[in-house]
Amino acid sequence: MVTILYSDRFLLHETGYMHPEQPDRLTAIVNRLQTSAIANQIQWLHPSNSEEVIPAIERVHSAQYIEEVRAYAERGWGCFESTQISPQSFEVACLAVNAWLDGIDLVWQSGKPAFVLARPPGHHALQNEGMGFCIFCNAAIAARYAQSKGIQRIGILDWDVHHGNGTQSAIENLPNIAFCSIHQSPGYPHTGKPEEQGKFNNVLNLPIAPGSTIQDYRQLFEAKVLPFFQKFCARKFLIVSAGYDANQVDLLSRINLQPQDYAELTNYSIAITPKVLFGLEGGYELESLSESVLETVQQCLKVE
Description:
The chain has helices at about 25-35, 55, 65-75, 90-110, 140-150, 165-170, 215-235, 260-270, 285-300; strands spanning about 1-5, 40-45, 80, 85, 115, 155-160, 175-185, 205-210, 240, 275-280. The protein has a single domain (about 1-300), classed as 3-Layer(aba) Sandwich (Arginase, Chain A), CATH 3.40.800. It has an 8-stranded parallel beta sheet with strand order 2-1-5-10-9-6-7-8, with helices on both faces. The chain has a two-stranded antiparallel ribbon with strand order 3-4. Strand 9, helix 8 and strand 10 (about 275-280) form a beta-alpha-beta unit. By secondary structure, the protein is α/β, with parallel strands linked by helices.
């Protein structure tokens, strides 16, 4: 069995007509998984509503920013760059964080992968600013939470096609969290240069050119990603910012991955440690997104 943390409440974060980050993203994924050949091997788990979520968020975001998001939602509208705030957005974003925190506990206790199927995404959110469809930086918050639970060394792998600038900003000065991002360059948010290595050599940025394929990813994983994490957090704990927007048909990128290629990315992640939490970031073409998530979940089932 593989556990997926999901709630229909994640659909209540409204982004407006024609916005790429739509509730339909989750609906398409859920429908695909529930009609797949592995449907009876999936355990669906509703995330908790822990009161600890605000203190967890405050490890990464300022209290002023958190209250600003809350105030925008109470007014019924708001916008940080391309990040829309609607009446339910604060509640939904907090529930998404709780899902990632529950995922940390679940993976650490079971020693097996799990998948957080939540929105809004998080890896662009900065300490005092939402951006790139993101409100709270889920992966960084989850990593800090893992530290508070006594997990000593944590890796964060970001394979979303866009650089996880919010995640890097949150952890680059922390000695026991490592961050690696494989991202299209040039491309939004125009960050993630190779020379950015973190205060403790704990950051590895790997920009890739438009038109790159799975072969380019293979070379990077074998030569750089696996050695980086094996040195830093081998067999400890890995968080994956699992964006699926590097698919060739996704209109927000120019990378040429196919859905089946995400099986390889998943297997590389599990090779670092079976204690890996996958969490949804980007991916906006519904069919390729849902097929790609299915590929990840199928590989998670192979972990004994």
